[in-house]
Amino acid sequence: MVTVTRLDGSVVVLNADLIESIEAVPDTVITLVNHRKVVVREPAEVVVERVLAYQRAVRGPERVKTGVGTEDAPAADEPTADPAPQER
Description:
By secondary structure, this protein is an alpha+beta fold. It has one helix at 44-59, and strands at 2-5, 11-14, 19-24, 28-32, 37-40.
């Protein structure tokens, strides 16, 4: 769960797993998977860090990598399994 502050000062707790996107346009707009939008005071970078901290706490730091599209990918310095041999 991620705690954020709406522009009116009210606090809302969002399920981090339901966040589809976070935009800075110039206010921070969080779009959920159900297409609801929440405009918050926190900068996008702060919201992203809170989401990553939540994911690390739930999944473990080894399962959450920073960067787009790398959450479940091995880090560059982690060994990877050799692919299965291809038949010719």
